[in-house]
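Quick one, tokens below:
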């Protein structure tokens, strides 16, 4: 089930510090891969919580492959998030304070395939045509990426 799910069995919905990694996958047209999440129907980047013993990079590669079918060949540090501003409550009531490192990936391989349980749709978006329904937990990072490309 995974480390966080095991903790949830013991702690219920109370707030957890969730160590995570996320990936901003950019194709050759400088378009950003976003996934429409099954839990809230908002768009965000691939990523998720670390398992015991993983590095941030290993987590980023695993989560991207699980959620999108793509395998990251190279990751480059982009930014990190933590703190009260990023507090989030999932639709099921689980509360988190993410401590996340976000990477950019421009070199990848594999076939785009959405993870059925978590992802409704995968799509590359031009950075100047992002969807309005961005996930609250991902919005700041996506806009920071957009601004770094467009300015």
């Amino acid at each position: 089930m995974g480390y966080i799910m095991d903790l949830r069995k013991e702690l219920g919905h109370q707030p957890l510090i969730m160590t995570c990694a996320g990936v901003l996958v950019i194709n050759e047209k400088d378009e950003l891969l976003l996934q429409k999440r099954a839990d809230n129907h908002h768009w965000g980047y691939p990523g998720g919580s670390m398992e015991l013993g993983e590095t941030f990079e290993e987590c980023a590669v695993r989560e991207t492959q699980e959620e999108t079918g793509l395998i990251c060949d190279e990751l480059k540090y982009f930014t990190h998030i933590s703190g009260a501003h990023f507090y989030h409550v999932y639709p099921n009531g689980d509360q988190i304070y993410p401590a996340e490192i976000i990477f950019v990936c421009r070199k990848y391989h594999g076939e785009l395939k959405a993870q059925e349980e978590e992802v409704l749709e995968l799509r590359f978006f031009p950075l100047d045509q992002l969807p309005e329904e961005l996930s609250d937990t991902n919005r700041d990072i996506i806009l920071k990426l957009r601004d770094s490309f467009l300015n």
